[in-house]
């Protein structure tokens, strides 16, 4: 059963909930807004706030998905930690060790791990004895980079981590992005998207030319390209960015399209 609203995965799952904003991509964090709305973490969001381990029932879900995938003969993609960060330094090591034990026990699932803490990947995995086991056959390792500054900071660190699939989430796109030549053969997938927000006029505008440029670069450098969304602020017929709610007809008709076309490529290395 596919139950995620995120177009590039099948299931979204959180081992724990809670995080701290670390860079510009986090300024309008949807996870923090979701937590504030539903009160998942009793002590709130941010540095020094205890993270909340999710329920035993929730932890049993990937086991069920793995069993069903084995019966169906179709692998499932699981985006792990949409309301957290796997490599958050304020998460107990034993929780992270438990997560990687679960990953190891679910070989029919492809785990999509996305982080803004590229500098913590190696030390965190060394602490729990996973680093020397890399690459794991069912882990896709991703990092967020909303602009050139954060790509340049995080990519050299992620590039050195042994992984079957490495990917970058260029979302929310906050500025133009120029991919270096060393992504060829090392970066397998790029997801691009503008920012969305539940509050009117809060989301930041993504220039379509940023997405067009990175689309061309991906095709030139052999990186699979996925365009997720335009964001809430879309240029209208006058050429001015205008905010559209997710329920509006205009948003629904345009949000997945770049120049009127859907771009939804998965990395070929994973398919092989």
Annotation keywords:
single chain, 272 residues, alpha/beta, seven-stranded parallel β-sheet, two-stranded antiparallel ribbon, 19% strand
Tell me what you see in this structure.
This protein is α/β, with parallel strands linked by helices and 272 residues long. It has one domain. Helix content is 29%, strand content 19%. It contains 9 helices and 13 strands. A 7-stranded parallel sheet has the order 1-4-5-6-7-8-9. The mean pLDDT is 92.
Question: Strands, helices and their partners?
Answer:
Layout: E1 11-13, E2 16-17, H1 30-38, E3 52-53, H2 56-59, H3 61-72, E4 76-80, H4 93-104, E5 109-115, H5 121-127, E6 139-144, H6 148-159, E7 165-170, E8 189-193, H7 208-221, E9 224-229, E10 233-235, E11 241-243, H8 249-254, E12 257-258, E13 261-262, H9 268-271
Parallel strand pairs: 1-4, 4-5, 5-6, 6-7, 7-8, 8-9
Antiparallel strand pairs: 2-3, 10-11, 12-13
């Amino acid at each position: 059963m596919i139950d995620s609203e995120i177009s590039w995965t099948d299931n979204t799952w959180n081992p724990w909930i809670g995080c701290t904003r670390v860079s510009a991509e986090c300024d309008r964090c949807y996870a923090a807004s979701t937590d504030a709305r539903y009160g998942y973490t009793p002590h709130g969001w941010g540095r020094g706030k205890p993270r909340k381990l999710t329920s035993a029932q929730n932890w049993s879900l990937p086991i069920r998905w793995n069993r069903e995938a084995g019966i169906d003969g179709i692998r499932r993609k699981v985006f792990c930690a949409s309301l957290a960060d796997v490599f958050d330094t304020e998460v107990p090591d034993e929780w992270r060790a438990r997560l990687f034990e679960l990953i190891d026990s679910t070989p029919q699932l492809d785990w999509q791990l996305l982080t803004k803490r590229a500098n913590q990947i190696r030390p965190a995995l060394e602490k729990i004895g996973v680093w020397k086991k890399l690459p794991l056959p069912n882990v896709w390792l991703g990092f967020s980079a909303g602009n050139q500054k954060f790509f340049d900071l995080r990519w050299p660190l992620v590039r050195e981590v042994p992984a079957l699939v490495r990917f970058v989430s260029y979302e929310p796109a906050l500025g133009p992005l120029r991919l270096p030549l060393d992504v060829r053969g090392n970066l397998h997938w790029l997801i691009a998207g503008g920012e969305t927000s539940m509050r009117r006029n809060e989301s930041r505008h993504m220039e379509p030319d940023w997405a067009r440029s990175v689309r061309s670069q991906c095709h030139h450098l052999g990186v699979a390209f996925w365009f997720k969304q335009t964001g809430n602020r879309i240029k209208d017929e006058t050429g001015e960015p205008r905010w559209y709610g997710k329920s509006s007809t205009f948003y629904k008709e345009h949000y997945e399209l770049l120049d009127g076309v859907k771009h939804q490529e998965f990395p070929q290395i994973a398919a092989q």
